[in-house]
Every structure is written in C-alpha cells, then in structure tokens.
C-alpha cells in the first residue's frame, strides 16, 4: 500500500542516519569522491566529475539532486562542519543560487 511505501521512503531516504548524521545520498557522494581518489591533500576536481562518478556507480537518481547535495556539503552556513572543500560559487546565505556544476570544483 501507499503507507508502506511512504514509510520506507521516510525511513530509508528522508531521515539522516543516527550513526553518522548522513542521508544515503550524502554517503554515496562522499564514498564516490573517496573511491575516485579525491582527497583533501590533492588538487580540486570539477564538481561535474564528482557528480558523474556518484551517478554512474552508486546513486540511481538524477544529477541535479546529487549536485544539490554536494553544494550543501560545501556550504559553511548549511553544515556546522562542511564535509566537502568547495572552490567556486556555491551560493550565499542570502538565497543566491550556486553556479552550475561545470564552474565549481570540490
């Protein structure tokens, strides 16, 4: 029934995991970046590359949702401790949208 589906979506995708505070898409982006060799001690790579690696290997949904997640993990005003080191226009607290993924690096 619809209630069963709604509950599985809420529990499986909408709520952060208690163990690490991440949703599945956050975990997939971070793992794809790790698996592709993106490390803090190396130079930045285009965000489009990170999104493509995530979508191609781990995340079955669209690239816009993956990029929105990557942007949020790079914004210091969205998370107490940003998980991604972003370079470029990742938006502003005053509702300015981020640049397209081809212009940003992470």
UniProtKB/TrEMBL annotation:
Q: Which GO terms describe its biological process?
A: DNA topological change
Q: Family per UniProt?
A: Belongs to the type II topoisomerase GyrA/ParC subunit family.
Q: Which one Pfam family would you cite for this protein?
A: DNA_topoisoIV
List residues of the Topo IIA-type catalytic domain.
15-106
Q: Which UniProt keywords apply?
A: DNA-binding, Isomerase, Topoisomerase
User: Which gene name does the record give?
Assistant: gyrA
* SUPFAM superfamilies, alphabetized: Type II DNA topoisomerase
Question: Which source organism does the UniProt entry give?
Answer: Mycobacterium tuberculosis
Q: Name one GO cellular component term.
A: cytoplasm
Gene Ontology terms for molecular function: ATP binding; DNA binding; DNA negative supercoiling activity
Note the superkingdom of the native organism.
Bacteria
Q: What is this protein called?
A: Gyrase A
What this protein catalyses is: ATP-dependent breakage, passage and rejoining of double-stranded DNA
Among PANTHER family, the record links this protein to: DNA GYRASE SUBUNIT A, CHLOROPLASTIC_MITOCHONDRIAL, DNA GYRASE/TOPOISOMERASE SUBUNIT A
In terms of InterPro entries, this protein maps to: Topo_IIA-like_dom_sf, Topo_IIA_A/C_ab, Topo_IIA_dom_A, Type_II_DNA_Topoisomerases
Q: Where is the active site?
A: 103 (o-(5'-phospho-dna)-tyrosine intermediate)
């Amino acid at each position: 029934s619809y209630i069963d589906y709604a509950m599985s979506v809420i529990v499986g995708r909408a709520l952060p995991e208690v163990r690490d505070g991440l949703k599945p898409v956050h975990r997939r982006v971070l793992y794809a970046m790790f698996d592709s060799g993106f490390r803090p001690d190396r130079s930045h790579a285009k965000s489009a590359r990170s999104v493509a690696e995530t979508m191609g290997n781990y995340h079955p949904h669209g690239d816009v949702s993956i990029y929105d997640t990557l942007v949020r993990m790079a914004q210091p005003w969205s998370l107490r401790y940003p998980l991604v080191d972003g370079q470029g226009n990742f938006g502003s607290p005053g509702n300015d949208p981020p640049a397209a993924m081809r212009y940003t690096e992470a």
